[in-house]
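ARCHIVE RECORD
Type: protein–small molecule complex
Small molecule: FE2/S2 (inorganic) cluster
Source of inputs: curated submission
Record status: active
Notes field left blank by submitter.
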Amino acid sequence: MTSVGTDVDRVDGPEKTTGRARYSADRVLPDMAYAHVVLSTIGKGRIRAMNTDAAAGAPGVLRVYTPFQPLKLYPPPPGYGETYAVLQDRDIRFRGQVIGLVVARTFEQAREAAALVTTEYDAQQPSTSLAAGSPGVTAPDQGQGAPPAKFAVLAPGVTSIDQALAASEVTVQGTYTQGSQHHVAMEPHATVAVWQDGHLTAYCGAQMPQVHAVSLAAQLGVEADRVRVLSPYVGGAFGSRVATWPDIALASAAALDLDRPVKLVLAREQVFTMVGHRPAVSQTVRLGASADGVLNAVSHKSDVAMPMPTVGSWVMVPAQDTSGALYKTPNLAIDQRVVPLDMPPTWAMRGPNEAPGGFAIETAMDELAVSLRMDPLRLRLRNYATTAAGTGRPWSSKHLRECYETGAERFGWSSRPRSGTVDGQWLVGTGMATAIYPAARFPAAVRVRFRDDGTAVVASATADIGTGAVTLLSICGSDALGIPLSRVEPRLGDSALPPGAPAVGSAGAGSTAPVIRSAAQAAITALIDLAVTHPDSPFYGMTADQVRYHDGYLDAGAGRSMGFARLLKLTGTAGVEATANGGPGPEAGQYAFHSFGAHFCEVRGNRFTGEPRVSRFTTVVDIGTVVNAQATRSQIVGSVIFGIGHALLEVDPLEDSGRLAAGNLGDYLVPVNADIPDIDVHWLDIPDTVYSPFGARGVGELATVGSAAAIGNAIHDATGIRVRDLPITLDKLLG
Amino acid sequence: MASRSPSTPPHRDGLSRRGFIGRTGAVVAGTAAASAPLDTARAAPQSAPAQQGENLVAVALTVNGRSVRLMADPRWTLLDTLRERLSLTGTKKGCDRGQCGACTVHVEGRRVLSCLTLTASVDGEHVTTVEGLSDGEHLHPMQRAFIAHDGFQCGYCTSGQIMSAVALVGEGHADTDDDIKEYMSGNICRCGAYPFIRDAIKDAREEMR
Ligand code: FES
Ligand code: FES
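STRUCTURE (tokenized, with ligand):
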């Protein structure tokens, strides 16, 4: 009996609840030294001089590295992170850039000595205003078959989107803004680096261990086969552990230079500038429709803050997979731009394009519904798309309509309180929005090994960043081999394993699950081959097709059956294994691939203080096959909570000085327990067998998209106030 | 800072040790991992690499039912002592400044943020960490409930959540949903396991009574 689709407790639950799970910084090695970074305190300029005497002479200090006495480092390969290497020049690119590294015998000594380093700068005025720099320049092409950053699809005879809007009976326009946001994975970025015989082992959180290893090797200037990244437990990521940030290379280079293990754990405040964040963005959406709510034109422009090319970053394109895919419209124009500023690096953060983009389009749709005096759900259904805009491709599988209907039913949408209902000191309102997220599929390799103790190993260099990937390996391995979960040993988080799917783009599960099946099949074939060719095997001399594998047994009929452990022992074989590769096929060019969902929520706004509270939330998603019901529920709930933070709490203002003003957990607010109601979650569980034979598209980010809009729409319903600048804090509701 | 004699721990009044003592007997086996560094510390505190520091003061405390004597740098927080000197890395550092709750442990049965607690200030006191909750493979009801309700994802905040949750029940703050929400709000979970943490607490509180 398979456990696919059921509630399976995480196989690493006992480790994680007892403190035995070892995250990167949990390595305590003999003779290990501790490092602490020194960061720039100006937003732009050049270092004139640094005084490290006091630091170097402080108790316990082993070495102080600066641009004047650097560790030799090279930039990561293009696309793997920043475009420069720290400590190699005296330029200050942003406030909070690494300008020094102090290594001492203890953590306390390193931290104290780091504070003794003094720096003189030739400072320049950084440019930090997104508004002043807008409109920016067209975002660089994303490559890999992605649509261009700027494109328009116009009906015959229509010459511009402006013309289409002007010809529409009803139009709405809104500009939606949000400041910088941070992933705030609970584990601060940390590295423990150990060299032995010219080979490095780096313990560091990685969403793609092999990519980390390749990037780290390049930064150190050594061959990739000398670097192994171990990342069995990762304390959250949300995109923050895709690129290699400078801590990993710094710790590794210092460990080599000092010939001893080095631990470098970033202080929480340092994470805010050393690790790329989600940049500020301003978006303008214009919608044109007929009086009965049929869309005629959709225009979505975005201006995204991004660091200078001398820093490098990932580029946000918020419109293409939101406004570009959500609704049926004869006229569509997407214009995604960037505004280079003197700011810390940026990177993808959970729903990287789609969460900001979804807030813009799904709020604009609500504004259109209000101006049409139409139920916002009916407006969505009226403009339901069955083929993707631009390409005209059908979706591999799309059941958004059922999400809307089921969600409305579960929430009680048709009997919702009327707008602005008063309940004591609270104004009550409801809102809804659509979720959409592209379903990518990555190449992945998986190895399955039968062992003579009756267990099987399922191994792939992917990562479990809290998604439940390690449990997924067990579930899918158990399913494909017909043996209990307890007899599967899952392995991941190690760059030495077969190249796994990156834990990014919500595609880890979808990319890995089908390949586990193929690898299991290949291992079974190898096992049968051993059975019929080894002279000590009872199946010796038979042909392969006379022996069948089921549930851990080889079976040749007529009572001739044997468990694989016994066969391996009889033949003196420790294990039999096979590795399979899988990835997207020709379907990739024929269909559009997205996951979908619908959010419904109730928000209460305090009549006297303005405080908004989310009181009810229902989310229904269409994600294909579900592997682990329990982990899926957790991912969806966690995504909605990310959306609640996005809507109501999170912003880190970039000051004129180039300083991110809220770089700690007291000033950068993320949701806490008291902010979160119970969240009702449901999925349709309709396999998408075009996406992969297994049919699971993945779920990690989808429900983050649209949740902020649903909340903002509910706040408008409750209070009559439309807040277009996130987060929606009480001051904006006191009008 | 004056060093106290480890043999004369300060008296503390008004604290219930009931919850703590109830578990003390169960934790001895669970601390085997910490025994090596502790023994080293006892033999030669100055020369053991893990014990280096400045202006060392003698500190004696009980961690998970086991007595520990060490020469502590006055700057050492309880968190860094547990993690870097006693190899008890189950307690996590999320912020090092009292803003996240990942470092929550029990001192004399009360939950405290070990990142804001100096090691020298808990001289003579009883400390329980997440490693001290379970008896080998036999998990504490709260640990079992966290697994059964999926009260975590990445697991990084989990030690702190569980230590807070156990204390919450003892404090009498686990009786209503509103209480649980409020009194668990010092423990951030970025993965967003909050509803499932509440479910776990409601489940475990019955067994803990
Ligand atoms: S590490 Fe102590 S509260 Fe965050
Ligand atoms: S489980 Fe990841 S932060 Fe709570």
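CURATOR ANNOTATION: The mean pLDDT of chain A is 96.
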